[in-house]
Design a protein that fits this description.
single chain, Rossmann fold, 47% helix
Length: 558
């Protein structure tokens, strides 16, 4: 009876992976008392095949879940319609509650029938036995056996806790349960006394901004967090996860962030291979509709690096909602997991981000300054110009206030706090992070990210003359145009390198540098072009085109 109840309440099982020979337990090692026998690889190498009763019950419950999601998103309009028609009176609500209660009882009955179907299936009984054993005893053998299954991630045991590193427990400077530290935007109106009257005046605007951010705004910014989209992508995500586990020997793990969100991660270890890049770990930060199962993780994998992918809060197996604070909390536990559980030193970690993933990448670079390098592909400097692009002009004030207070993705500000090597990849046909049309390459916000970085690091070089010539170089939309502008200014790379190395030897590596202070305009322009060409590479593609492995290069450094 206990096993039947476990089958009723257990998670949905999607796939049973192949048993990998390299992970099988040695024959001479005795099993722990709570270990169970792993499934044979020859007979169960397939998607899990439920019995008819479980299959039909699952279909009914999945349909009910979709209807519930549609009802949730349309509930404001439904309530307004019912109120206008007078259906919200007590005489109408009571019968409706009876219908709802009856429907819930029917669905509970369907769930019990699904449990019976699972109970009659030896594959599911084997799986639930392993899952229960792993929850009782987190032994390496039990976790190894559980990794052969793909199931609802909410039932996966936690593998790493944000407080697990001993340094976190001993230090009071680490993150609290309220979250890690973020850079806060400055007040819109400086010098205004924050009196009670002013607070009351601002209250309607603040309430409106909160509602916009938590309803329409968050879903527009992170469409991958919408349940219906995830439901439609589920077959693709399952295939991508199977590829990572079976072909790349990936290891899935659940991380618990300081805000209580559970973060779904996938680690591919290349340290034992002949690839020298395998000693380096690339942490991948996906876009606003990207998942590690099918996202930018494939680029460093093809290049031979060890890779750690993770899903945003609210994406696939990760819980929560993808607001900036939750995003930073998730990134913090991912980096801690890489250092304290996977055993990589910060100097061996590279942060690679695509699109909106630039926010968490720049936060990690700012918060973990010893990280080896940062690569930002198709990213931007600030969210406000991109948000204004897609909203009516009459909403400018509301959009700016909402972004600054609730969705402040200040990538450039965070990146300027990082002292290490940076590479920006600009898509020359990008249709997402341009503020006009894709053909207008100067409206690409990646340009602004480069200019802000260079102006912070080399303020004397990026004065009026240097800024003008870099802008001309950024107007080039092809390699031929780029090379033409570069050669027109006769940039002497050896001279530029000697100037920078001399300054570094005399003043140290910390930015900002005052190099170029006593230089003529021609010298500053050459140096500005040299630095821009080293920090930004063009890729002739649209926003969502996968980056080829040969374009994944380490940033330049002295």
């Amino acid at each position: 009876m206990a096993k039947l109840l476990s089958c009723v309440l257990g998670p949905r099982l999607y796939k049973i992976y192949r048993e990998r020979d390299s992970e099988r337990a040695p024959s001479g090692v005795p099993e722990t008392p709570t270990s169970v026998t792993a499934p044979p690889s020859s007979s169960w190498d397939t998607y899990y095949q439920p019995r008819a009763l479980e299959k039909h019950a699952d279909s009914i419950l999945a349909l009910a879940s979709v209807f519930w999601s549609i009802s949730y998103y349309s509930s404001p309009f439904a309530f307004f319609y019912l109120y206008r028609k007078g259906y919200l009176s007590l005489s109408k609500v009571v019968p409706f509650s009876h219908y709802a209660g009856t429907l819930l009882l029917l669905l509970a009955g369907v769930a019990c029938l699904r449990g019976i179907g699972r109970w009659t299936n030896p594959q599911y009984r084997q799986f639930i036995t392993i899952l229960e054993a792993t929850h009782r005893n987190h032994s390496a053998e039990n976790k190894r056996q559980l990794a052969n299954y793909n199931f609802d991630f909410k039932s996966w045991p936690v593998d790493f806790h944000w407080e697990e590193p001993s340094s976190r427990k001993e230090s009071r400077g680490g993150p609290s349960r309220q979250g890690v530290a973020l850079l806060r935007p400055e007040p819109l109106h400086r010098g205004t006394a924050d009196t009670l009257l002013n607070r009351v005046k601002k209250l309607p605007c603040q309430i409106t901004s909160y509602l916009v951010a938590h309803t329409l705004g968050r879903r527009m910014l992170y469409p991958g967090s919408v349940y219906l989209l995830q439901k439609a992508l589920m077959p693709v995500l399952l295939q991508g996860q199977a590829r990572l586990v079976e072909e790349c020997n990936g290891r899935r793990a659940k991380l618990l962030a300081c805000d209580g969100n559970e973060i779904d991660t996938m680690f591919v270890d290349r340290r034992g291979t002949a690839e020298p890049q395998g000693q380096k770990l690339v942490i991948c930060c996906e876009g606003n509709a990207g998942f590690y199962e099918v996202g930018c993780i494939s680029t460093p994998l093809e290049a031979g690096y060890s890779v750690l992918g993770w899903n945003h809060p609210g994406f696939a197996g990760s819980t929560g909602v993808p607001f900036p604070q939750n995003e930073a909390n998730a990134m913090d536990v991912v980096v801690q997991f890489a250092i304290h559980r996977l055993g990589f030193q910060p100097q061996d970690i590279i942060i690679y981000a695509w699109s909106i993933g630039g926010f968490t990448a720049t936060w990690a670079a700012m918060s973990y300054p010893d990280i080896s390098a940062v690569i930002l592909d198709a990213s931007f400097d600030d969210l406000v110009p991109l948000a204004l692009k897609v909203m009516p002009d009459s909403w400018r004030g509301l959009v700016t206030r909402t972004v600054r207070q609730h969705l402040n993705l200040n990538n450039a500000e965070q990146l300027c706090r990082y002292q290490g090597p940076v590479l920006l990849i600009r898509r020359t046909k990008d249709e997402i992070i341009t503020t006009t049309v894709p053909e207008d390459i100067m409206s690409n916000r990646g340009n602004d990210l480069l200019l802000k970085l260079l102006q912070y690091r080399y303020p004397r070089v990026m004065a009026e003359d240097g800024l003008r010539v870099v802008r001309q170089w950024l107007e080039a939309s092809s390699q031929l145009e780029e090379a033409s502008i570069y050669s027109r200014w006769e940039v002497e790379e050896d001279w530029c390198l000697s100037v920078l190395r001399s300054y570094q030897a005399e003043h140290g590596p910390d930015f900002p540098w005052s190099v170029g202070e006593d230089m003529d305009a021609d010298g500053r322009q050459q140096l500005a072009l040299f630095l821009a060409q080293k920090h930004l590479h063009n890729f002739e593609a649209t926003h969502c085109t996968p980056l080829p492995a040969q374009n994944f290069q380490m940033p330049w450094h002295l």
